[in-house]
Design a protein that fits this description.
The complex is a heterotrimer of chains A (1012), B (222) and C (145). Helix content of chain A is 28%, strand content 24%. With 1012 residues, chain A is an alpha/beta fold. The termini of chain A are far apart. Classes of the chains: A alpha/beta (1012), B alpha/beta (222), C alpha/beta (145).
Chain lengths: 1012, 222, 145
C-alpha cells in the first residue's frame, strides 16, 4: 500500500494514556497490524472507567465489560505495555519520531509478582487503595482484575522495608529498583491521557473534603462498587449508616465564572448523576430518596433523554432545577442542610439530607500542559488539545493525534469513537511492515491424534504461594498420575512462565502426550496462553483443559487446606475425564475481500471513503440522491464559525477525484447476501435503474438523517415561521432581510422530547445559539428570545451560550405542558409564553419565529436497509450499534459499521469523528487475509436430524435452516456458539464443539464417580 | 404430524415396576418433532426411571434406542438384537409404534410411555394444536381451509352454535370458534356465498364409524 | 446425617457466574467447597439431560447460574435455562425427589460476593434437605415387589 503523507521509518505508534480510549486505540492499531507502545503513568491500565460501579445507560457492571478488553490488551502480540512510564522527550517528525520514555521504579518485579496479595495482607491498614476515599498505600493494586496483574509499592511511604521484602514468597519486591530510560522510534503518536476530576475541597461553600458526608460522584461510585472500600454497601462515611436522603448537586466547579470554576460544561455529569440515582433507587427502592439539583439536564446523547425520563417516572428520582448556594453541616449528626432557590417565583427552601454527592467534572491536568510543551502541540483556551473544526482528532503537530477527554470532556462511547478515529488516522501514516508475527514461524506442524488413545499429561502449578502455599501440589500430581489415561503428572511451578512452558512442551514430545490438563488458574485469563503453548508443541490447540485450582479453590479455601486438597483432586478428576474426550477442532477461516461499500454520500460517508481510499482500499460510495453532500449542503456555518460549504465542496472534489473511490449516485441498495469478509450487494442506479452487484468485505452505513418538519407553530403556514436550517440559508442569501428584523423568537425542542419522539435531537441548542449570534453580528440591536426546556451546550459549546447571553440574547424556560402559543398577525407572529421567573404570561410580536426542529431518522430508508442487511434499529429508527458503550460504531453484523447521523443526531464534527472511527474499525476488520471465526460452533448430524425446526426457532440469531437435503444446517461462519440449539434439539442431533455432550457428561462423571 | 405427551411418571413406573431390565424405544418421526419421544426425551426418561428405582434401593437397567420410525416393520426389526436381553419394552412412539412392536415381538410385554394426542400443527415453538381428525372425507375445500370437525367443539357442519362469542368458543376463551375462523377466511377469499350453502349430513362411513380402516395401493401392494 | 456433606454441581456461564466465581477468589471470599463448577459458554447450553444426570450420579443439589435478566451475551439463553430448570423441578417431584434441589440463579460478572453468598445459601439449604434419595441404592438391592 502506498503511503501518502509521511516518510516512514517504522510502523510503531506510541499511545500515551491507558484508559479506555488508549486501550481502544491500541487494540485497533494492533488488530490492523501495527505495533503499539502503550504507556501509562499509573501502575495499571484502565483509567477512570475501572473505578466506576456501573455505566449509563445500560447500568451494566463496568469491570465485567472492561476486563475482557484489558486481557485482550495483555495478549496482543503487537502491544508493548509500559506502566508507570512517561514521555521525557520527543524529536523528529511525523513518520519518524524518536521518543525518550522514563519508567519509574515499581519496586516489584512484574515477571515474579503473582498478585497473591501477601504484601497487601501484612500491611493491611495502609495498603488498601480506595480512590478518593483513602490515602494511597505503599503497595497498591487498583482493582481486583488489574492489568498488569501485579502490585506496586510506594517505597517512600514504607517504614519496614526489610519486613516488606521478606513477606513476598516470590522474591518479587525490589527495594533498590531504579528509574529506567529508553528511546523508541515511532511513526505516530496518539494522546489519550484523559483528564482529572475537579477537587471540590477548594470551594468553601459545599464542604467537599471538610464534611464527611459530602462526597464526589466518583467517591460515590466507589462506595456503591462491589470491589470498593465498603464492598458495595451504601453507607455514610461519618457513621457507617445507610442514608435515607441523598442529594446530587450538578456543575460543581463547572459552568461557572467564580474562583476555581471553569466556564465549560463537563458533558458527562448529568448522565452519571442520573445513573447513580437510578442505581441507588434500583437497590433500595423507596427506602432512599434521591434528589438531583441541576441547571440544565444535558441528556443529549443517544437514547439518554429516555434514561432521564425513566429516572423521573419509574424511579421517582426528584429533579430540581436550582443551583444551591451552600451546604452546611448540622453539628453532632453530620447531616447536611441545603438551601436553594426555586426558579418558580424565586422561592427559598431549606432541606436536610444524609449525604450529598457533588457532581464534579473534568479538569485538564498539569502534566498535560507539561507534556504538550514537550510534544510541541497547542492547547486551546481551556488547556485541552487544540484541533481544527473539521479535523477533530488532529493536533497542531502532524503525526500527533488526540482522543478522549484530552480533546474535550466526553463520555465513554464518544471516547471510544474518537479513539478508533485517532487510531485510524495514526495507522494512515504507517504501512504494515512485518506481516508475520515471530511466534508463528517456530510452530511445529500439527500432529494427527484422531485415532490415538488418550495419553494425558497433567501439570499442576504452584503459582508461587498461591496454590502451593495452601495445598501440597506434589500430592495432587501423585493423585493425578494414577487416574485413567494419565501418562505423566508433574508439578509445574509457575506453569505460565517461559521455563515451565518449555518444559511442558518437551514433555509433550518426549512422552507422546496428546491431551493436556493444567491445574492452575482460571481458563478465562490463561486458556489462550496454554492453547498457544500446546500448539507450538504440535498439538491441536483444543486438546488442553484447565482445572481452576487457584481462583476457585486455594484462594477461596485458604484457611482449610484439607478441604482445598479434596476439592483440587475433584477438579483434576473432572478435567482428566473431560479432556480424554476432546478432539482436534479447526478454526473457521474465511478469505476476505478487501473492498468496502459505503452507503450514503454525506459528510460521514465521504470521510469514511476518503480515509479508507487513502490507505489503499477500493471504496464503492453509494448515494441515493443525485449528488453528494447530504444534509450538510444546507448548512453554511458551524457554531465555531467554520465555513461548511467550502468544506463540503472540497470534500466532494477530493472524493470524486480519488482514483480508488467509485462514486455511484442515484443508486439504491436492493439486495444483499454473503458473510462477513465476502458480501455481495445489489444496487439499482437511476435514471434507468440498471442493476449491478458489488462484492465487498465490509460495509459502512452512513445514510444520515432528515430535517424534522413537524406541523406545529404555523410552520409551512406562515411566512414568518421557519426552521433553523431555513434561517441559516436566509442569513447567507438574504442578509439584508435578516437585518431588518427587530424581534426574533426561537422555540427549542420542536418535535423532540415529546411522547411521539422522546429523544433529544442534540444539535438544536447549539444551532439556535449559532444563528442567534449570527443575527446579533448582523444587527446588534435585534431582540432575540430563545424559548427552551434546557440549554444543552455540552463541552466547550458552553462558551457560545455564555457569549449569547452576554450579547443580550434572552433565554426563557418553558415547560412541556405549557408550550408557547403562536398566532399570525399580518406579516408577523404573536408568540405568547409564560416566564417562570417573572411568573407572568408574556407576549412578543416577532418578525421571525425560528423553530429548532432537529433531526429525525429517515425511517423508511433505515427500515429497508435494516431489512436488506439484517441490521437492528432503535425505536426511533436509527441504527443500533453492537455495544452502546464499548463498540459505538460497530453494528451487530460483523463487518458492518455505522457513521454519522444514521447512528443518532450529531453535529458535523462528531460525524467526522465517527466516520473516521468507522473507517478505523473497517481497517482492523480487513487487516488480515482471513477471518478466524473460532471453533466453538454448533454442528448438526444430518443422520439424526428430524428437521423439526426447533433449532431454527430457538437460535437467537436465526442461523440454522433446513437445507435441500432435508436436515438442519448451521453456517459455522455465522454461528455465535451459545449452544442453545444443542440443548433444545429433541433428536440430539446437534453438538456444540468444545462443549460436546459427552465431555460435559464425562466432567460430571469425573466428579461424581465415587459417590454411589 | 401426530402429537403426543409423556404419561405421568407414576403410571409409567407402575407398568415397569415388575421388571429390572427394559428397552426404552424412541421414534425419530412425529414424536421427535413434537418433543415427546425423540432421542432427547428417551435419555431423560431413562435417567428419571433409573433414579426412581434407585430411590427405592433398586436397580433398573435401561437400554435406550431411537428408531427412525416405529410404525414400519423394517425399522422395528432393528430391536431384535436387544429384545432377548430385556424383560419388557417401553415405547415413546405414538400408538402405532407401540402396536407395531407388540405385533412383531409377540411374547414381550410392551408399554406406552406417552399418550398419543392428535394430528396437529405447531403454532409456535413448544405449542401444538389439533387440526385434523382423519374423517376420511376431507371437506376443507368447502370451509375455507379450516376444519369444523377437528376444530369445532361440537363438530357442527353449518355455522356456529349460540355459544360463539367474540370469535371464541364457549368451552374456553383460549379456543377459537372454528366457524368464526371459517367465516373470516371465506370473507377474505370473497367467497361469502359458500357460507350460505347448506352442507348435507356428513357421511361418517369413511371415518372411524365404519370400523378399522386400511389403504391399499393396488399398483404397489404385493 | 450429622456429618452429611452435600455435593453440589453449579453450571456456570462463562460470561457472568464463572467470572463472578473467579472474582470471589480474587477477593478471597470464602464459600463452601461443596460447590463444583462446570463451565458452559451460556446457560442456554445447559441441557436438562445434564442436570438430571448430575442427580442420577449422586449429586445432592444442582444450580444453574447465568447472567442477570437482559444481560445474556446471547440475548436470552438465561431465560431458556430458567425454563429448563423449571422442567427439571417438575420431573424431580414426579419421581418423589425434592424439587428444591435444583435452582436457577442469576448474577453479573462483578458479583463475586453474590457468588459466594449463593454458594453458601444453597449448600446450607441442601444440607438441611439431606442426601439425594437416589443414594438409597447404596443400602442394598431390594427385590422387586
Amino acid at each position: 500500500m502506498e503511503n501518502q503523507n509521511t516518510k516512514q521509518t517504522n510502523n510503531k505508534v506510541l499511545i500515551i494514556g491507558g484508559g479506555v480510549g488508549g486501550i481502544r486505540a491500541a487494540l485497533d492499531l494492533a488488530e490492523a497490524g501495527r505495533d503499539v507502545v502503550l504507556i501509562d503513568r499509573s501502575a495499571s491500565i484502565g483509567g477512570l472507567m475501572t473505578q466506576l460501579d456501573r455505566t449509563f445507560p445500560t447500568n451494566n457492571c463496568d469491570l465485567c465489560t472492561l476486563s475482557p478488553h484489558l486481557s485482550e490488551t495483555g495478549r496482543e502480540h503487537h502491544i508493548e505495555l509500559l506502566t508507570m512510564t512517561e514521555l521525557a522527550e520527543l524529536q523528529g517528525e511525523a513518520g519518524s519520531f524518536t521518543v525518550t520514555l522514563t519508567s519509574h521504579p515499581r519496586y516489584i518485579d512484574l515477571e515474579k509478582c503473582t498478585a497473591c496479595g501477601d504484601c497487601y495482607e501484612k500491611f493491611k491498614d495502609c495498603v488498601q487503595f480506595k480512590p478518593g476515599l483513602d490515602h494511597r498505600a505503599p503497595t497498591c493494586m487498583r482493582y481486583p482484575r488489574a492489568i498488569p496483574q501485579a502490585f506496586s509499592i510506594d517505597i517512600s511511604k514504607c517504614k519496614d522495608i526489610d519486613g516488606l521484602v521478606s513477606v513476598c514468597k516470590s522474591d518479587a519486591i525490589i527495594p533498590d529498583d531504579t528509574e529506567k530510560k529508553r528511546t523508541v522510534e515511532v511513526g505516530a503518536i496518539v494522546l489519550a491521557t484523559g483528564a482529572e476530576l475537579f477537587d471540590p475541597a477548594v470551594l468553601d461553600n459545599y464542604g467537599g473534603g471538610a464534611y464527611p458526608n459530602v462526597v464526589t460522584g466518583l467517591e460515590y461510585e466507589r462506595i456503591m462498587s462491589a470491589s470498593g472500600p465498603t464492598l458495595g454497601s451504601l453507607v455514610r462515611p461519618s457513621d457507617g449508616k445507610q442514608p435515607q436522603k441523598v442529594a446530587w448537586i450538578q456543575c460543581v466547579g463547572s459552568r461557572g465564572i467564580n474562583k476555581a470554576d471553569v466556564p465549560y460544561c463537563s458533558s458527562v455529569c448529568c448522565m452519571y448523576a442520573l445513573k447513580e440515582a437510578i442505581v441507588t433507587k434500583e437497590r433500595f427502592q423507596d427506602s432512599i430518596e434521591a434528589t438531583i439539583f441541576y441547571m440544565d439536564m444535558r441528556t443529549s446523547g443517544k437514547d439518554y433523554e429516555r434514561y432521564r425520563n425513566r429516572a423521573e417516572k419509574e424511579y421517582n428520582v426528584k429533579l430540581i432545577r436550582s443551583r444551591p448556594h451552600t451546604i452546611s453541616e448540622k453539628p453532632g449528626t453530620h447531616d447536611l442542610s441545603i438551601s436553594y432557590a426555586l426558579e418558580e417565583g424565586s422561592r427559598n427552601v431549606t432541606e436536610t439530607y444524609d449525604m450529598v454527592v457533588l457532581s464534579t467534572g473534568f479538569r485538564p491536568t498539569e502534566e498535560m500542559t507539561v507534556l504538550s510543551e514537550k510534544l510541541g502541540i497547542e492547547l486551546n483556551q481551556h488547556r485541552f488539545a487544540k484541533t481544527a473544526g473539521f479535523s477533530p482528532v488532529e493536533t497542531s503537530r502532524p503525526g500527533i493525534y488526540a482522543c478522549g477527554v484530552f480533546e474535550s470532556p466526553k463520555d465513554i462511547p464518544e471516547t471510544m469513537a474518537q479513539a478508533s478515529a485517532a487510531a485510524s488516522k495514526a495507522a494512515g501514516n504507517l504501512d504494515i511492515l512485518n506481516e508475520m508475527p515471530a511466534s508463528q514461524e517456530e510452530m511445529l506442524p500439527e500432529r494427527d491424534v484422531t485415532d490415538q488413545a488418550p495419553k494425558i499429561g497433567v501439570f499442576i502449578c504452584d503459582c508461587g504461594f498461591n496454590i502451593g502455599g495452601v495445598i501440597d501440589v506434589g500430592e495432587i500430581a501423585a493423585y493425578a498420575e494414577v487416574l485413567p489415561n494419565v501418562v505423566v503428572a508433574e508439578v509445574a511451578g509457575h506453569g505460565c512462565s517461559r521455563e515451565s512452558m518449555l518444559n511442558i512442551q518437551s514433555k509433550i514430545e518426549e512422552c507422546g502426550l496428546n491431551r493436556i490438563v493444567i491445574g492452575g488458574c482460571s481458563p478465562r485469563t490463561h486458556e489462550a496462553k496454554f492453547q498457544d503453548m500446546i500448539r507450538r508443541a504440535g498439538l491441536n490447540r483444543y486438546l488442553v483443559e484447565m482445572a481452576n485450582l487457584r481462583d476457585q479453590d486455594t484462594w477461596v479455601h485458604k484457611h482449610n487446606p484439607d478441604l482445598a486438597t479434596k476439592k483440587a483432586k475433584e477438579l483434576i478428576r473432572m478435567a482428566v475425564s473431560s479432556v480424554a474426550l476432546r478432539h482436534p477442532l479447526t478454526d473457521h477461516l474465511l478469505p476476505v475481500n478487501k473492498d468496502i461499500l459505503v452507503v450514503g454520500g454525506g459528510v460521514s460517508g465521504m470521510n469514511s471513503a476518503l480515509s479508507l481510499a487513502n490507505q489503499g482500499f477500493k471504496v464503492y460510495l453509494v448515494e441515493q440522491a443525485l449528488n453528494l453532500g447530504g444534509l450538510a449542503r444546507k448548512v453554511n456555518r458551524t457554531l465555531s464559525g467554520d465555513d461548511v460549504q467550502g468544506y463540503i465542496q472540497e470534500l466532494i472534489a477530493k472524493t470524486t477525484a480519488h482514483e480508488r473511490i467509485e462514486v455511484l449516485t442515484g443508486a439504491t441498495v436492493v439486495d444483499h447476501k454473503g458473510m462477513p469478509g465476502m458480501f455481495t450487494t445489489g444496487i439499482q442506479i437511476a435514471p434507468r435503474m440498471y442493476y449491478r452487484q458489488i462484492k465487498h468485505g465490509a460495509t459502512i452505513i452512513a445514510t444520515g438523517a432528515l430535517e424534522n418538519r413537524p406541523q406545529e407553530y404555523l410552520l409551512g403556514q406562515h411566512n414568518a415561521v421557519m426552521t433553523q436550517l431555513d434561517l441559516d440559508s436566509m442569513l447567507e442569501k438574504q442578509p439584508e432581510k435578516v437585518k431588518a428584523w427587530d424581534h426574533i423568537v426561537m422555540i427549542q425542542c420542536v418535535g423532540s422530547r415529546t411522547p411521539e419522539n422522546p429523544n433529544c435531537s442534540r444539535i438544536c441548542c447549539q444551532t439556535a445559539i449559532k444563528n442567534a449570534l449570527r443575527i446579533k453580528d448582523a444587527n446588534p440591536g435585534a431582540r432575540i428570545f430563545v424559548l427552551n426546556r434546557d440549554i444543552r451546550t455540552v463541552g466547550f459549546q458552553e462558551d457560545y451560550y455564555r457569549e449569547a447571553r452576554e450579547k443580550g440574547v434572552i433565554f426563557v424556560r418553558y415547560e412541556f405542558d405549557a408550550k408557547p402559543v403562536v398566532t399570525g398577525e399580518g406579516d408577523q407572529v404573536l408568540v405568547s409564553f409564560r416566564d417562570p421567573v417573572l411568573e407572568k404570561q408574556l407576549e412578543i410580536t416577532a418578525d421571525c419565529l425560528v423553530l429548532s426542529t432537529g433531526l429525525v431518522a429517515n425511517d423508511e430508508a433505515t427500515e429497508d436497509l435494516a431489512m436488506i442487511f439484517h441490521l437492528n434499529r432503535t425505536d426511533d429508527g436509527f441504527f443500533l450499534e453492537n455495544h452502546i458503550k464499548l463498540r459505538p460504531v460497530d453494528l451487530h453484523v460483523p463487518g458492518f459499521m455505522v457513521a454519522g447521523t444514521a447512528h443518532s443526531p450529531k453535529d458535523i464534527r462528531e460525524s467526522i469523528v465517527q466516520a473516521q472511527a468507522a473507517a478505523g474499525r473497517v481497517l482492523t476488520f480487513l487487516a488480515k487475509d482471513t477471518i478466524n471465526l473460532g471453533a466453538g460452533v454448533a454442528k448438526v448430524d444430518g443422520k439424526k436430524c428430524a428437521a423439526c425446526l426447533i433449532c431454527v426457532r430457538a437460535c437467537p440469531y436465526g442461523i440454522p435452516f433446513i437445507n435441500a437435503e432435508g436436515y438442519s444446517e448451521i453456517d459455522p461462519a455465522q454461528c455465535h456458539g451459545c449452544g442453545v440449539c444443542a440443548a433444545e434439539c429433541p433428536a440430539k442431533a446437534i453438538q456444540l464443539m468444545q462443549y460436546e455432550d459427552d465431555m460435559i457428561s464425562a466432567e460430571l462423571n469425573g466428579l461424581l464417580e465415587r459417590i454411589l | 404430524m401426530i402429537t403426543a405427551e409423556r404419561k405421568p411418571m407414576e403410571e409409567i413406573l407402575e407398568c415397569i415396576n415388575p421388571y429390572n431390565r427394559i428397552l426404552l424405544v424412541g421414534c425419530n418421526e412425529c414424536v421427535t418433532v413434537c418433543a415427546a419421544g425423540g432421542r432427547k426425551e428417551v435419555g431423560l426418561l431413562s435417567t428419571a426411571l433409573q433414579m426412581a428405582f434407585m430411590k427405592e434401593g433398586r436397580t433398573l437397567e435401561v437400554k435406550e434406542i431411537t428408531l427412525e420410525r416405529q410404525c414400519d416393520p423394517e425399522y422395528v426389526e432393528e430391536l431384535i438384537t436387544y429384545i432377548d436381553q430385556v424383560e419388557a419394552v417401553l415405547s415413546m412412539a405414538c400408538g402405532c409404534g407401540v402396536q407395531e412392536i407388540a405385533r412383531r415381538y409377540a411374547t414381550k410385554p410392551v408399554f406406552p410411555a406417552v399418550n398419543t394426542k392428535f394430528m396437529g400443527a405447531s403454532e409456535r415453538q413448544g405449542v401444538w394444536s389439533e387440526r385434523c381428525r382423519g374423517c376420511g372425507d376431507c371437506l376443507l375445500g368447502l370451509t375455507g381451509g379450516i376444519c369444523p370437525i377437528a376444530r369445532c367443539s361440537k363438530r357442527l357442519m353449518n355455522g356456529p352454535c349460540g355459544g360463539s362469542t367474540k370469535g371464541k368458543c364457549e368451552i374456553s376463551p383460549d379456543v377459537d370458534c372454528a366457524w368464526n375462523l371459517i367465516w373470516e377466511r371465506l370473507k377474505a377469499l370473497g367467497l361469502e356465498k359458500k357460507y350460505e350453502e347448506i352442507m348435507v349430513a356428513k357421511d361418517w362411513r369413511p371415518s372411524w364409524h365404519g370400523g378399522p380402516r386400511r389403504i391399499i395401493r393396488e399398483d404397489m401392494a404385493e | 446425617m450429622g456429618n452429611f456433606e452435600p455435593v453440589i454441581v453449579a453450571f456456570c456461564c462463562h460470561y457472568c457466574a464463572y467470572t463472578a466465581a473467579d472474582m470471589a477468589g480474587s477477593m478471597r471470599l470464602s464459600y463452601p467447597s461443596n460447590v463444583k463448577i462446570v463451565r458452559v459458554p451460556c446457560t442456554g447450553k445447559v441441557d436438562t439431560k445434564h442436570i438430571l444426570q448430575a442427580f442420577h450420579k449422586g449429586a445432592d443439589g444442582v444450580y444453574v447460574a447465568g447472567c442477570l435478566e437482559g444481560d445474556c451475551h446471547f440475548k436470552n439463553g438465561n431465560i431458556k435455562a430458567a425454563r429448563r430448570v423449571a422442567r427439571v423441578k417438575k420431573l424431580l417431584s414426579e419421581i418423589g425427589i425434592e424439587e428444591e434441589r435444583v435452582e436457577m440463579i442469576t448474577m453479573s460478572a462483578g458479583m463475586g460476593e453474590r457468588f459466594a453468598q449463593t454458594a453458601t445459601d444453597i449448600t446450607e439449604k441442601i444440607r438441611n434437605l439431606g442426601p439425594n434419595p437416589v443414594k438409597n441404592i447404596r443400602d442394598g438391592q431390594k427385590q422387586p415387589a
